[in-house]
Amino acid sequence: MVGVMTTSGHDVESEKAVVKAGGEKYHAHYEIDSNGVWLASVAEIPQVHTYASTLGKAREYLVDALALWLNSSVEKVQLDLVHRPALLPNDVQLALDEALSARLIAETTTRLSNEFLSQAAIALVSEAHLSRRDAGDLLGLSHQRVQQLVASQGNLTSGVGASAISAREIAERLKEFLPGGSKEDLGVLIGGVAVGLTLLWAANSD
Q1: What is the pLDDT of residue 203?
Q2: How is the chain split into domains, by residue range?
Q3: Rounded distance, CA 78 to CA 83, Å?
Q4: How far apart are CA 189 and CA 186, in angstroms?
Q5: What are the start-end ranges of the H helices in the chain?
Q6: Phi-psi region of 71 (alpha: psi -120 to 50; beta: other; left: phi over 0)
Q7: What whole-number distance in Å separates Cα of residue 199 and Cα of residue 43?
Q8: CATH topology of domain 2-83
Q9: Burial 144-168 (b: 16+ CB within 10 A, else e)
Q10: Burial class (CB in 10 A: 0-12, 13-18, 19+), 107
């Protein structure tokens, strides 16, 4: 399934030399056709292309094709080839972006929630001297879960420090979605997802 096409009448070795001299990084382009077949090509070298039934295989075949064209090792090509996001139909891409954005928010929120729960469990048990069962009752958790949270005390230098670290992590991740960030195009989308999740939380809290 590896395709390496050249234009008849051209000096293939000369073409390769020109491409090599142009820079070390190459960019892979992927799109799926109407039959569900993945088409893969190298942006800088139109002569190198391939296809496969899965995206993973398309990546593998394209690396092989580029290595053959450049007369280079697969290992080196893997370092030099930048895989661009696959092109999908607009509605499919939107669904994917929404899912990834929601997952990012959920992962960050879960990590922050666990840190606050740990701080609260430690305060209830260590400072207020409540039993683990009473702490679990107040937190809405099992006493076994409270024990796990209290056992994590060694990972938390202080309540303020732990919260500050989480805040910095969230800030750094959100920077990707601001203008100029690597995920700027998803900035508006993730904001909409965040608002939606906030409204859902508020409705369930009433």
Answers
A1: 60
A2: 2-83, 90-205
A3: 10
A4: 5
A5: 12-21, 55-70, 74-80, 90-122, 132-139, 143-151, 159-175, 187-205
A6: left
A7: 43
A8: Double Stranded RNA Binding Domain (3.30.160)
A9: ebbbebbebeeebeeeeebeeebee
A10: exposed
d(CA 72, CA 81): 12
User: Could you read off the pLDDT of 109-137 as tens digits, one per residue?
Assistant: 888 888 888 889 999 998 999 999 999 99
Q: What mean pLDDT value characterizes the chain?
A: 77
Query: Parallel, antiparallel, or unpaired: how do β-strands 26-32 and 81-83 relate?
Result: parallel
CA 121 to chain centre: 32
- The residue-averaged pLDDT of 34-56 equals 95
**Confidence bin at 8 (pLDDT 50/70/90):** very low
The band of 143, judged by pLDDT with boundaries at 50, 70 and 90, is very high
